[in-house]
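We modelled each protein-ligand pair independently. The example shown here corresponds to the pyridoxal-5'-phosphate entry; the chain sequence is given first, followed by the ligand as SMILES.
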Amino acid sequence: MNTRDYQALDRAHHLHPFTDFKALGEEGSRIITRAEGVYIHDSEGHRILDAMAGLWCVNLGYGRQELVDAATAQLQQLPYYNNFFKTTHPPAVRLAAKLCDLAPAHINHVFFTGSGSEANDTMLRMVRRYWALKGQPQKQWIIARENGYHGSTLAGMSLGGMAPMHDQGGPPVPKIAHVRQPYWFGEGRFGEGGDQDPEAFGRACAEALEAQILELGEQNVAAFLAEPVQGAGGAIIPPASYWPAVKAVLAKYDILLVVDEVICGFGRLGEWFGSVHYDLKPDLMPIAKGLSSGYLPIGGVLVGDRVADTLIEEGGEFFHGFTYSGHPACAAVALKNLELMDAEDIVERVRDDLGPYLARRWAELADHPIVGEARSLGLMGALELIDPETGERFDKALGAGNLCRDICFELGLVMRSVGDTMIISPPLVITRGEIDELVTKARAALDATLADLRQPAAEESIA
Ligand SMILES: *Cc1c(COP(=O)(O)O)cnc(C)c1O
């Protein structure tokens, strides 16, 4: 089968996630056929630097034989057995122990799921169950954030703060509220009230959380849920003032902290967990993605002692679980993935070498005429596109971000767009030389985007 054959069958039968089916059908999909290291290859023979690590997950890069071998060996030994009904198997037990070893000291239990969305569903049920067991069944509200992402199941969608998702297939799960996000460039510099001091803006976001708690009644609020750095929202790194101020608010009222580590966990920010980078000490941490470097699907919830002890001692049966909770092959691959990260000092390299190197090279892009801000933390980064004529954001109708993303693909780089924010999250095994290539290609793409956006105006003036 050639590219056109695949595109025809794809158009005829395949509904893609987060996709305008009709528009894609008219354009045709790009068919990815193989990959190695930080590069993917398509069916037309293009080799493309994958600066998104798939979907924020292929942290050890493509083509790791050790992970393939771990899956193969486990599939031969025991391809499937469940963890229901008083049974388990060695990979699930060993992975649980390894995760709790890596997690902060107050976290000693894990509940496995098949994905990050299921992890957030699980977390929601655990949090409400916890408070019911504590004699406070009215404590049900979860406060999350606008433009946060927590998955695509009904609970994941409801917890997330993506308005277009809420508008489809609702109504969302009840008793979930959203507060403003600590997105300084979007809402502190260019939002209402404009050009605020970033640290004052960070504190104002924490004040908004406190106001929401008081509005709902502190006795009704079960938990606050947030990503350490928002991923899908646009690689949004909060101002330094934000997390300490949020922690102070949560400490004032008796409210659990849930930190969604699905992207930030497993080395992305230069620590094993984003919570460690920001010193958050969360009560629960949903995990997935980088847990297995995406080789097989697996997620979970790391549960701190406060909640776990109550669920264990007082909870009786917890009526919740998935057929693939702790699937043996997925668990074996995740375990091997973590062992390789350990053995190769991946987390330390991101913190001490690759993260600072990317920060230096990425910041150079801030001098480009269409870049209003270049930010990064660990191996996650963003560029905010602005109109060089006005110094303001581009007219949304121009679709500058999507244009830049498409140009990147043509130039051999996967860089994603969220509105007019360009984001990267490359495999953690990327080399300095590959970071140089990434930055060179990103600059070329910015040049081409600027040229393209100027094109129509130039033609008009000629006419
Ligand atoms: C991707 C993501 C999820 C959902 O994970 P799935 O495996 O796609 O269900 C949840 N939270 C965050 C922060 C994510 O980035």
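The chain has two domains: 31-63+345-462, 65-343.
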